[in-house]
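Can't attach files on this board, so I'm pasting raw text. These are the components:
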Amino acid sequence: MSFAWAKQYEPQTALTKWLDEKLPLPRLVYNAVGAGYPVPRNLNYMWNFGVLAGFFLVVQIVTGVVLAMHYAANQAVAFGTVEHIMRNVNYGWMLRYAHANGASFFFIVIYLHIFRGFFYSSYKAPREMIWLLGVVIFLLMMATAFMGYVLPWGQMSFWGAQVITGLFSAIPLVGEPLQVWLLGGFAPDNAALNRFFSLHFLLPFVIAGVVILHIWALHIPGSSNPTGVEVKQESDTVPFHPYYTAKDGFGLGVILILFTAMVFFLPNALGHPDNYIEANPLSTPAHIVPEWYFWPFYAILRAFTGDLSIPFTGIVLIPAKLLGVIAMFGSILLWFILPWLDKSPVRSGHYRPMFRKFFWFGLIPCMIALFICGGAPAEEPYVVISQIATAYYFLHFLVILPIISQIEVPKPLPFSITEAVLGGAAPGGTSGGGKINPEGVVGGLPGTATDGSLQPAE
Amino acid sequence: MATNTAATTEVSAAEEGVRRRDWIHIAALGTAGVGGASLLFPLVSQMAPSADVLAASTTEVDVGAIQPGQSIKASFRKQPLFVKRLTAEEIAKAKADDGASMRDPAKLADRTKAGHEDVLVTMGVCTHLGCVPLGAAEGENKGEFGGYFCPCHGSHYDVAGRIRKGPAPLNLQVPEYEFTSDTVIRVG
Amino acid sequence: MTIRLGGIIVGLAITAVLVLWSLLPGVYNYAFGPAPEKQPSYAFYEHGDGPDGGFAFDGAFGKWDYAQLQRGYQVYKEVCSACHSLKFVAFRNLKQLGYTEAEVDAEAAAWTVPGIDPATGEVTTRPGEPTDYFPSPYPNAVAAAAANNNAIPPDLSLMAKARHDGSNYIYDLLTGYGEPDPAKAAKVGFETPDGLYFNKHFPNVNIAMPQPLSDGQVTYADGTEASISQMSKDVAAFLTWTAEPSLVERRQTGWFVIIFLMFATTLAFLSYKQIWAGLKPKKK
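---
Top answer:
Structure tokens for the assembled complex are below.
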């Protein structure tokens, strides 16, 4: 892996030499997140969120394992054991609030991480595999978060389980039996609660496994960077340690201040009051919504209010319920083909004027609109807004992106990262990066680089 | 001379700069270490007994119906409690043994309440490794000393619940209790 | 290439479906259709603002007012507990309200909790102990519904967290009883249904609970005048405590943690800048 100029691990003591021969774990760490991993020197703060996501995964696993020591997955006592944690267990309130808000912060940093990827086209070759694994992690996170939200067995937990498993009942023919199979009954009850607890405990470790693959895949081409120009020479990079460990340490401090502010002062602000009412299978709350991180996708689900039918005949091709479910899952699944939809040779949004306009004035407002509509009651004007935003969402990824990647004239790229940072002082660069450097455009792509020896070796 | 002084100042300034820089890294790492270590506190203490477990509960036992020579088992804070009414011979035997060589010497009078010397209240938990000794129920093995016998590892307790033979280090524990009336005790 | 072509076709198809089958009729109805009718009762709902001056525990530096919590406990004990349980709170927890151990014992003994006769095993009652939880006034949900015109009085342990802005909500609800404006009610044909009571701060203004408090209903030991507003405020404070006993401790810990983190983050920032200082290029 990594670049030819990467520092090599050299064990100093007899013990580390022995360990390096038998089990080169220190070498692995050194090459993965130590001085042996050269990273582009121009990363901005948007590149902090990968490490932060890893941090919150650890927070969730540690607090979760500890909470599981006091929780009981039985519908008769689940709500009571959560209150037992809050009232009787030493620091139980702190651990539970950290776990509940930790989920929210995990999603905050993941969304920033994903949208960093959208803007800087981190999904493009040679990093498609990193992106695909990332989408898998995101899907696993959504499943884990949903099942975790069911565990306190409050009103929102119960009706969330009912509604989300109800999505599967939209599938023709097998839908209804599938929902009954998922729940182990005709309504959420002990069977559903127990299997959700089991899977909620298991999936984070599956996520951790895919995260390892994600990082492994990252270390083959190396990190992307804000210019989108690939690393060419040693002066383009700095060792991960101490440069980015220090920067990530600072970023971690900042996010921890925000996190503890939520945990200790507004622990229930991101939750829903109805979940402090014990589950009641006979009464649905007036306004049920999922947790905030599902709102955009929930809005897409609810945007489809009419059946897809052949006009004037009344023959229903796809009922509205199924249409919504397909669209909701499709909205995330389409990320899997994103690397092949957007084939622009330029990665970074900074050098793509048209792409950048559609990103800031199309995709971002669209996501904000979907977010607001997903949390709002299913009333006008929210339904119409969510329909417009849903239409744009699919248009953006499936139509606009492929077309602009063809017709757009990108801005001139700097010759190298060093040139971008030093402002044209690098050898071979044009002054100030102001002039078009045609080699620079293609030079950033693998296989077309003028100097093959600078390409990362596996 | 002048140049010499200037050079020395420069060197010491550079050294100081290095030291100050190191100090920042050490302070940052040290603070992070303190923060990380203090996280262990809630994570460790959450496993200690919770408030509802620590809340001291009491148990009332009616000892009036127990005949001499009989014992009953009650439950006190999720542990077995033995209440035994001693016969006159047992009291005499226990008193006779008060001076005998024992691992955990104790007098019968110290293990019962004044005026109720025939009522022996002990925890039913062997002080060796926590099994419940036999001897409280009719027909059970009472051991070589006629009191309680722990079958797990062979600890023999005498009629006053004192360890006489076997691996247990201490006598059966006498919990805190009081007589609320002539026939009712309140444990805890 | 096929993926992109397929993507474009699918994207256009989804957009077309949305536009043709739901978007156009939706927009048309929103713009030109009749406005959705709202129930007349919504016209009578008024948003409450909580008690004047707020609560002692409001804000990031808020503290419990123990005298108020004890008064609130008295209101719960003498009024609310007739119908509402408090099942997640134990008598031992009352110690946190500033009662001594002996007072907690006496308070617990004043309540009757379900028990079992040790001789016969029959279900009976006994005086409470500090380790017992507050008893429910009804043996089960069916009994609760039967005694209350089919409306089960909810458990109050978590009420202050189970409603949006719960502490203020409880105060508003208890002070929101009255009669609807007769002229307005006649105009829209609004009538409070039989068996329900008008409360302008209840979401649909018809509540199953009759007005529980009246002036002077309890006699406070500390001489505070027991007005409806005062009792409502006190019991709202008490129920905030039952819902979140760790509230004040949590914020105090929070301040300590945040100040520590700010210090640590400043050091981390200085360390980070120091490490990068040698590398940062001079711009031009």
